[in-house]
Design goal:
Elements: E1 2-7, E2 10-16, E3 25-29, H1 46-49, H2 57-60, E4 70-74, H3 107-110, E5 119-121, E6 124-125, H4 133-162, E7 165-173, E8 191-194, H5 203-215, E9 220-222, H6 230-235, E10 242-250, H7 266-288
The structure holds zinc ion.
Length: 289
């Protein structure tokens, strides 16, 4: 396990390498970080800001290394900077000066949840100030780029060695949407798999994961409401045998959404995710044989 590089003297990411014969299978958890940096400077209540976290998702997939897979997790919080956004998805309203690079605020910035969040929840601003260009740059350099550099290194090395790589981008979702989400205030299923409408992995892989989860008794939707975002887009190239799938887990299955503590369902869900990892590692081994 390696923690690197420093963020205010603390690690920004955690990489856990296989503890057994490696398989070309990678899990990444970009939103489970809970280490709020001292220079964050937010005014929203911490509990509200934390609703952006996919708290504990890295723990749900902790069995990856013992199955030959690699696990990467962000340690900084998603609300500090979101590695699942395009680097250009910067909201100019957040800054005290013009962004010197290319700013291309998309629909997520308009919802207040771009690269750097403007809103912690609907009508709850994260800041009472403008951010400086220097502090946004520091977040990119200390968090965004190290995360993507490490994930690219892992995916590329496995692809170079095995000629194929399967990547699962792991998230969790609130049990209900809100005015700040694309689906609005509706109840969500147990799992949502996203392959950007079949463009980030082949339907065989998506259906395999969906089928395995349904066998475990879970309700699964595909590309509705979450299709996958920057991370699966960036690492996928199905014709080159690079498959990326986003997985969203309903938080009510494993935690109290108010206190963010694991609930009574945590151990069962973690055991089920360990079984899913074992199944996918077996699938990868069989495909290579
Ligand atoms: Zn997420």
């Amino acid at each position: 396990m390696t923690d690197a590089p420093p963020l205010n003297g603390r690690p920004a990411i955690r990489r856990s390498d296989p503890t057994t014969t490696p398989v070309p299978l990678v899990f990444d958890s970009p939103h489970s970080g809970t280490d709020y940096p001292p220079d964050f400077g937010f005014v929203a209540p911490l509990q509200t800001l934390r609703s952006a976290e996919d708290t504990h998702v890295d723990r749900l997939f902790a069995a990856a290394p013992d199955n030959g897979a690699t696990l990467l997790a962000a340690l900084f919080p998603r609300s500090y900077i979101d590695v699942n956004r395009d680097l250009r998805d910067i909201d100019p309203e957040l800054l005290d000066a013009a962004w010197p690079g290319t700013a291309k605020p998309g629909p997520k910035s308009k919802l207040g949840i771009g690269l750097i969040r403007r809103l912690a929840q609907p009508n709850v601003p994260v800041y009472d100030r403008k951010l400086t260009v220097a502090e946004v740059r520091a977040r990119i350099e200390n968090c965004y780029l190290p995360y993507h550099d490490e994930l690219a290194r892992i995916v590329d090395a496995l692809h170079a060695r095995f000629g194929v790589v399967w990547h699962i981008n792991c998230h969790s979702m609130a049990s209900r949407g809100s005015a700040m989400t694309e689906d609005g205030p509706v109840e969500r299923p147990d799992f949502v798999l996203g392959d950007r409408d079949g463009t980030t992995c082949g339907p065989i892989f998506t259906d395999l994961v969906a089928h395995r989860l349904r066998e475990m008794g879970y309700a699964v939707k595909i590309n509705d409401p979450y299709k996958g975002a920057e991370i699966v887009r960036r690492y996928a190239d199905p014709p080159a045998r690079r498959q990326s799938l986003q997985i969203e887990i309903n938080r009510k299955l494993y935690m109290d959404e108010r206190t963010r503590e694991p609930n009574a369902g945590f151990d069962k869900l973690q055991a089920d995710m360990s079984r899913l990892i074992g199944f996918l590692a077996g699938y990868a081994r069989a495909a290579l044989a």
